[in-house]
Amino acid sequence: MQASLVTAYRRLLVRRAAIVAVLAVVCIAALMIDVMTGPSALRPLEVLRGLWEPQHLTGPQAAIIWQVRLPWALMALLVGAALSLAGAEMQTILNNPLASPFTLGVSSAASFGAALALVLGTSLPGVPADWLLPLNAFLFAFGSVLLLQAMSQLRGGGPETVVLFGIALVFAFNAAVAFVQFVSSQEALQQLVFWSMGSLSRTTWPNVGVLSGVLLIVVPFSLRAARRLTALRLGEDRARSFGVDVARLRFFSLLRVSLLAATCVAFVGTIGFIGLVGPHIARLLLGEDHRFLLPASVLTGAAIMSFASAASKTLVPGALLPVGVVTAIVGVPVFLALIFRRRERLS
Amino acid sequence: MTVAEEGLRVESLSTGYRARPVFQAFRLPHLSAGEVHALIGPNAAGKSTLLRALAGLLPATGAVSLGAHELLGMELAERARHVTYMPQSLPQGIALTVLETVIGALLASRVQAVPVAGNEAVERAAATLQRIGIAHLALESLDRLSGGQRQLVSLAQALVREPRLLLLDEPISALDLQYQLRVMQLVRQLAREQRVTVLIVLHDLQVAAQWSDRVIVLSQGALAAFGTPAEAITPEMLAQVYNVRARVERDSTGRLQIGVDGLLEESPAASLDSVEPMRRDSGLRA
C-alpha cells in the first residue's frame, strides 16, 4: 500500500510537470502567433524568417518586426506573466479567490499617478519626459501598497484587514482620479481614458527590459516561498504551527505583488482580467501545490495575454483595439470551459 | 536527557488577547512525556488559548520548557520542530490531494536539522495516513471529503511532523464512534511508544476518563483540578466547574461512568457573557 502510494505520488508529480511543459509550449506558440499577426501586409512566414535572418528584410519590414511586433508581443507576454503570478500569490495570502493585484487599489493608485503626470505635465529633475508617466504611476502604485502594509500592520494584519484597507484605497484613489479628470483639459482627459484602458502601444525596448528585469528578480523569490504558500492554504493556524511565519510571508509576498503589478500598470495601464483568471486556470489544471501553481500561473497569464494581443490586432479589421478591452473576451471562454469540465468531473 | 527532564513544564504562563488577558502567571504540575493529558473545562475556560500559547500562536510571557528547551521566545520555525498544534477548525476544501497536504505539512519548515528528502517525505506521509486508517483517501482531493474525513487529515498533518509535544484541539469532535476510538488508541500508542507529551482538548468527559492518564480541568483561566481521571473528575468538580448535578461511578470493569442528572439551581448565566469572541478560523465552539 505504502509503496503503491509513493508510485502514485510520483506519477502525480510527473503529470503535473507534463502539464506545465504543455503550457510552456502553448505560451511559445501564442507568442509566435502574436508576432505574426498585425495590420501590415507581411506574411506570417516572412515574419518568422525575418526573426531568424534579419539581413533579408527591407528597411520598413525590419522596422515593423523589430520595433513594433516583437517588443509589443514580448511586452504582452511579460505583462500577462507578471499579473498572473501576482494574482496567484495574492489569492493565496489573502485566502480569497476574488483577489487580484487590482483588488487592493494598485491600479487606482497608478491611475492617479498617471493622471497627475498627464495633467500637471511637470517633470521630475533628471527624468526624461517620456518616463515621467510610467515612473509616476509606478511610484503611486508601489506607495499605495506600502501604505496598505503599514496600516494593516498597525491593526494586526489578517487577510480581512488587508482587503478592507485595500477597498478603502480603491475608493479613495478613484475619487482622486475623478477629481483630476474633472479639472483637467479635454486633451489630457482623452489621454487619461486611453491610458486607463490598457494598451501596448507605448511599448519600447527599455520598457521590455525593465519588466523582464523585475520578473527575473521576483520569480526566484516567489518560487522559494512556494512550500510556505502551500502550507498557508492548509489554514493560517496550521501553517504557523508548522513553522511558517505567516506575517512575514504575507509582507514579502505583497511586496512582490506590488512590484509586479506597479511595473505592469506603469507601462501598459490597467489590464484587469489576467491577474484574476490566470491563476484560476492554473489551479483548475494543476491544483494548489505552489511549486507547480506559481510557474503554471506565469504561463497561463502569459499565454492569455499573448492571444489577447493577437486578437486585439485582428478582431476589428484595420483597427487596433486597446488590449485591456480584449483580454476578457479571450479569457472568459477558456475559463468557463474549465469550470464546466470540472463540474462534470465532480458530479 | 534523563527521563525526569522530559515532558512539559509550565512554571508560569501569561497570555491572552489584546484587551483581555486569559492566563496570568498560570502554573501547571509537570506533564510527563509518554502520557496523554486531557484538557477539559466549560466553554471559554481558556483551553484553546492555552494550546495556542504553547504552540507559539499567541504572544506569551513566562517560563515554559519542553525537556531542556525553553519554549517561550523560541522562533516559530525552531519551535515547530518540537511542538505541533492541531487546530479545532477543519481544514478548508482546497484543490490538493490528501497526500499532498500531509507532505505539505511536513515540508512547510524543517522538522529536523537535515531536510527531509523528497522520497522520505512521501513515505512518511503515506505511513501516517496508514496509521490513522485513511490511506484509501490519500489521492482524494481535500474538497471532496466529509467533515470527519477532513478532521482525520488534519490529524495526519500534525502527526507527520513527529513532534515531542503534541497539542490537539478537539481532534475527535467530527468523528464517528469507530474513528474516535481509533484516534484515541493511536494517540495513546504514540505517547507510550515515542515518549510524546500529549495535551488534548476533549469535550466528552467519558472519553477523557477512558483514554487519558491525567486530566487537567480549566475554569476561567485557572486550574480547577488536576490528577488521574478518578481524582479530577468528581461530582464536586462537575458541580463547581460545569454547574451540573452528576454522579461518577466505577462500573464492573473498573471504568469511570459519568451520569449527569441535571443543572444545579442557580445557573450563572454569566458563563454565556464570557464566551470567547469567535476567532476567524476557529469556527463554532462545540
pLDDT average of chain A, as an integer?
87
Encode the helix/strand succession of chain B as letters. EEEHEEHEHHHEHEHEEHHEEH
Number of helices of chain B: 10
What is the fourth-level CATH superfamily of the largest domain in chain B?
P-loop containing nucleotide triphosphate hydrolases
What integer value in Å does the Rg of chain B equal? 19 Å
CATH class of chain A: Mainly Alpha
Largest interface: A-B, 34 and 50 residues
Under CATH at level 1, the class of the largest domain in chain B stands as Alpha Beta
Query: How many structural domains in the coordinates of chain A?
Result: 1
- Strand content of the residues of chain B, in percent? 25-35%
Roughly what fraction of the amino acids of chain A lie in strands?
under 5%
Q: Percent helix among the residues of chain A?
A: over 70%
- Count of DSSP H/I helices of chain A: 14
Task: Give the beta-strand count of chain B.
Answer: 12
Word description of this protein:
The complex is a heterodimer of chains A (347) and B (286). Chain A has 347 residues and is mainly α. Chain A has 14 helices and no strands. In chain A, helix 1 runs antiparallel to helix 3, helix 4 runs antiparallel to helix 7 and helix 5 packs antiparallel against helix 6. Chain A is globular. Chain B is an alpha/beta fold. Chain B has ten helices and twelve strands. In chain B, strand 9 and strand 10 form a beta hairpin. The interface between A and B is large, with 34 and 50 residues.
How is this fold's topology laid out?
The complex is a heterodimer of chains A (347) and B (286).
Chain A: H1 2-36, H2 44-52, H3 59-93, H4 106-120, H5 129-155, H6 159-183, H7 186-197, H8 205-224, H9 226-233, H10 236-241, H11 246-268, H12 273-286, H13 290-314, H14 323-346
Helix pairs in contact in A: 1-2, 1-3, 1-13, 3-8, 3-11, 3-12, 3-13, 4-5, 4-6, 4-7, 4-11, 5-6, 5-11, 8-11, 12-13, 12-14, 13-14
Chain B: E1 8-17, E2 20-26, E3 36-40, H1 47-55, E4 60-66, E5 69-70, H2 76-79, E6 83-86, H3 98-107, H4 118-132, H5 147-159, E7 165-169, H6 177-194, E8 197-201, H7 205-211, E9 214-219, E10 222-227, H8 229-232, H9 235-242, E11 244-250, E12 256-263, H10 270-273
Parallel strand pairs in B: 3-8, 3-9, 6-7, 7-8
Antiparallel strand pairs in B: 1-2, 1-4, 4-5, 9-10, 11-12
Helix pairs in contact in B: 3-4, 3-5, 4-5
